[in-house]
# Entry
Amino acid sequence: MQRIWLTVAAEYLYLQPEMTPVIFRWYAREAISFSSRADLAKAAAHLADEFEALAGVDDSTPIGFFCRVGASSRPDARSVRKSVGELLLEPELSPQP
Ligand SMILES: Cc1cc2nc3c(=O)[nH]c(=O)nc-3n(C[C@H](O)[C@H](O)[C@H](O)COP(=O)(O)O)c2cc1C
# Structure
């Protein structure tokens, strides 16, 4: 997944994960209750049907990741990019500049 995302970025494209349909399809297909409102369970089942039609799969096909990829101007709002040193639990292992 990381390799795909980084390759997309290296090609000056943008990748946006779209996990909401994956997660609500999972709730619907596994009959997991996520709300006391019955209409929302029905909506999730409808979403699952549409998502499977779009993906060309049936309800038994596992889907673990879904995203869109395309050309775009740079988004204004971005996640904070930390340096490798800030991300490491043992900063002394950080590559030296
Ligand atoms: C685990 C995960 C799940 C995500 N799910 C969604 C989603 O369901 N819908 C959506 O619009 N973006 C989703 N995103 C994408 C983020 O909104 C964002 O575009 C992405 O993390 C890149 O952000 P950045 O460009 O600020 O680094 C998800 C991102 C991650 C890491």
